[in-house]
Amino acid sequence: MEDKISLYELLQAFKKRLLLNIGIFLFVVSATGLVSYFLLPPNYQSSTQILVNKKESGDEQLNSQDIQTNLQLINTYRVIIKSPVILSQVIEKLNLQTTPDLLTKKISVTSEQNSQVVNVTVKDRELKRAAEIANMTADVFQKEISELMNVDNVTILSPAINKSYIKPITPNTPLNIIIAAVVGLMIGVGITFLIEFFDTTVKTEEDIQELVGFSILGFVSPASAKKIRDAREKEVR
After folding, report:
1. Per the database record, which ranges form the Tyrosine-protein kinase G-rich domain (predicted)?
2. Does the pLDDT of residue 103 top 90, yes or no?
3. Which domains, ranges and CATH numbers included, belong to the chain?
4. I need a surface site. Which of 90, 109, 197, 212 has the fewest CB within 10 A?
């Protein structure tokens, strides 16, 4: 038999094993949906915003210099926010069963380019706890930065919220199901291709010719049982 399988032959094989492919597709999609809904723990995200801006007033030139100074300090603030000096107090005040090293993995501190707003984002399996950690981190940082760097230019702009309408960021069940559908279809096509590729049964006249090495002189057309009975009745008459 030929080792190459044409696209038409593959489509015919896929059609012939349609039930198998549907079964694989439904199994993969269903398993993914069940795992996403019932086995994967949800993870929530909560954020608070900190404004880095000196409160004292002055002329326009001074304000411009202050803004540039604040922008330069933001990178330093990002490091301080995730430092043990801040996080150890957060753990103590919230009575968390963790360490600063583990807590820092849940916290990300970001800021847009040339922006004086710093976002403190916390990911946790409980939305309430994520909001509490974010708010407490901002509070502790605001109090400690004045002592650490002798500045007073931090304001909590927007505290983290804990609302029932906030959905978990992971798992993304609809996306997981879409990916599973594509994977299930690919698995079905792959299995169909492997079955056809390793199938050594004789199916066509060309297969016989290739197998025995002789030219085909003729072939017997298939006949239904009704045609056979009709032919026998004609012979009897």
Report:
1. 138-194
2. yes
3. 7-38+172-235 (no CATH), 44-158 (3.30.70.1130)
4. 212
